[in-house]
Specification:
Length: 276
């Protein structure tokens, strides 16, 4: 039997299992990581989490983060996972610097850690498409799409509390329009131009989660474009299903969005050992 040490971490209600693999602690092949993630993330027979973060060495950054979903698929990036990895890394890096560079499949991203508050620089959005018509079970919807490290489809709603996030989210997630990779789905209610409420159906988790960092970012950026929020250092607060408010900062100049940041709190909940 092999002992695998881990940290259980939470960011805005998103919970993650963080494992330090810088010395090849896991000692498993890449082909086995998907099965490993499924086992650890299982909320009945494993530790239980929205994702598994594997921390490896990186030649070009302070560390490398890989994120595996509960269904075993590997995601390109995860905003809340990135914040957890940065907070975890601060206690592990010898010089205790506040700025942490993290190598992900979406590129090298930087995070600034101040106690439990973590602000991460996100990738610039890509594949932006507004006002996409969708036909779902005979009803017409208008959605928006943006990739903020992973793909997100945004649907504005008037009654977010009673929106069928799981049912409608699953249909849009697997809609032919977004194949073959599928999409995360964010339901957004505009409170005002500086405050929105967002609920997310996450691809790979295949259910609603209490928060989604890349989803909150996508919701804020689409809100900025749709409702003409322009200028440098724009800020939109996003209330998540967990009740926590995430802050999204960005520049929107000449309909081009750059310098995107996600800010919120993260914490280590407990440490433990998993027996393989």
């Amino acid at each position: 039997m092999k002992d695998i040490e881990f940290n259980k971490m939470v960011a805005s209600g998103n919970d993650f299992i963080v494992t330090d693999n810088r010395r090849n602690q896991l000692a498993v092949k890449d082909s086995q990581l998907s099965d490993f993630a499924r086992k650890l993330c299982d909320r009945k027979f494993g530790i239980g989490a929205d994702g598994l973060l594997i921390i490896d060495k990186s030649r070009n950054a302070d560390l490398r983060m890989r994120i595996f979903n509960p269904d075993g698929s590997e995601a390109e990036m995860c905003g809340n996972g990135l914040r957890c990895a940065a907070l975890w890394a601060k206690s592990k890096i010898k010089n205790k610097k506040s700025k942490i560079s993290i190598d992900t499949k979406a590129g090298i991203l930087e995070a600034v850690v101040s106690k439990d508050l973590v602000k991460v620089k996100m990738t610039d959005p890509k594949d932006l498409k507004l006002n996409i018509p969708l036909n779902i079970n005979g009803e017409k919807y208008e959605v928006n799409f943006v990739n903020t490290g992973v793909p997100h489809t945004i649907l504005f709603v008037n009654d977010i509390r009673n929106t069928n996030v799981r049912g409608l989210g699953k249909i849009i997630r697997f809609h032919p329009r977004f194949l073959p990779n599928g999409t995360n789905v964010d339901f957004v209610k505009l409170e005002n131009k500086k405050h929105i409420i967002s609920r997310t159906y996450e691809r790979g988790v295949e259910d609603e989660t209490l928060a989604c960092g890349t989803g909150a970012t996508a919701a804020a950026l689409i809100t900025g474009l749709k409702f003409n929020i322009r200028g440098s250092d724009c800020k939109i607060e996003v209330k998540t299903q967990s009740g926590e408010m995430l802050k999204i900062y960005f520049d929107n100049l000449k309909d081009k969005i750059t310098n995107v940041y996600l800010e919120g709190r993260a914490e280590i909940v407990y440490k433990g050992v998993y027996y393989v």
